[in-house]
Structure to design on (281 residues):
């Protein structure tokens, strides 16, 4: 069986995009997605993203399988890539065009801005322990600067869901974090029943955050869009950051705004088409 694909990335957070417009179910299984994401035996990617037919009146639907085959609710860098992929499939890429995309995190609206830039209304962050989900604190309460023992060390963590779970901790120096050691211990900590993405944030200025991330189901990635959004929300909740921030990731910078007027989070960043090809299952 042959699968045609196009490879995109958002600041180095890279995805295999599949044209799934003609079927309501993903073209491939999570097991095949794991093989496709393998950087030696496959194409190589942090995940596989499906452009599916719209649901409940949306233009399209997005589903995503992480590199480990798990299915997250949302992907910020990925939905920017999906927006440009859809424009490619439709044969027109005009700045100002927006799409309503059904996701497991709700309807998300990316907008083409030209020059490979895409802005996204990422919706409102979910903040109660039950919504993350985490067993830290009471289910109906927020988790802000709570102490958590991970890897023999006590960390102050703030939890935010952008549809997918994020555990944010503020550190003096992100370069001193050994992600491969501490990342999996956060990801699989018993207080996160669905596992978690973990962001380590260094406040350079209240409007400029430096971030490194260990992603659920993908490991250390060069960027994480939902994680950058969650980190700005955590920065505001803890009084450490402004609502409008630049977030610097190893793969580049995202502009994030947690609007005071509608409480929604807006993200702007690039999405780059790299190559197309045929994958032989
Ligand atoms: N690994 C994430 C999904 C991808 C999120 C990230 N790549 C982004 O850009 O938001 C999770 O399991 O929740």
């Amino acid at each position: 069986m042959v699968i045609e694909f196009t490879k995109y990335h958002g600041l180095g957070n890279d995805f295999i995009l599949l044209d799934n417009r003609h079927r309501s179910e993903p073209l491939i299984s999570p097991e095949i997605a794991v093989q496709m994401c393998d950087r030696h035996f496959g194409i190589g990617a942090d995940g596989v993203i499906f452009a599916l037919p719209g649901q409940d009146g949306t233009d399209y639907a997005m589903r995503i399988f992480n590199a480990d085959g798990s299915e997250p609710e949302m992907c910020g860098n990925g939905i920017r890539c999906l927006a440009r992929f859809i424009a490619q499939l439709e044969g027109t890429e005009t700045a100002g065009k927006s799409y309503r995309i059904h996701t497991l995190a709700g309807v998300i609206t990316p907008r083409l801005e030209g020059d490979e830039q895409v802005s996204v209304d990422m919706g409102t962050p979910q903040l109660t322990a039950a919504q993350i989900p985490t067993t830290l604190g009471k289910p109906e309460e927020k988790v802000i600067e709570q102490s958590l023992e991970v890897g023999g060390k006590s960390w102050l963590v703030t939890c935010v869901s952008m549809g997918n779970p994020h555990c944010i901790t503020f550190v003096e120096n992100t370069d001193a974090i050994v992600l491969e050691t501490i990342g999996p211990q956060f990801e699989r900590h018993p207080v996160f029943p669905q596992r978690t993405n973990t962001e380590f944030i260094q406040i350079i200025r209240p409007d400029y955050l430096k971030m490194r991330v260990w992603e659920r189901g993908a490991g250390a990635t060069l960027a994480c869009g939902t994680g950058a959004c969650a980190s700005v929300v955590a920065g505001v909740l803890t009084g450490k950051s402004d609502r409008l921030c630049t977030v610097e990731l190893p793969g580049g910078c995202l502009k994030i705004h947690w609007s005071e007027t509608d409480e929604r989070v807006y993200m702007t960043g690039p999405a780059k088409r790299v190559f197309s090809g045929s994958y032989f299952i």
Remarks:
- The chain has a mean pLDDT of 98.
- The CA atoms of residues 46 and 179 lie 16 Å apart.
- Residues 76-90 form the longest helix (15 residues).
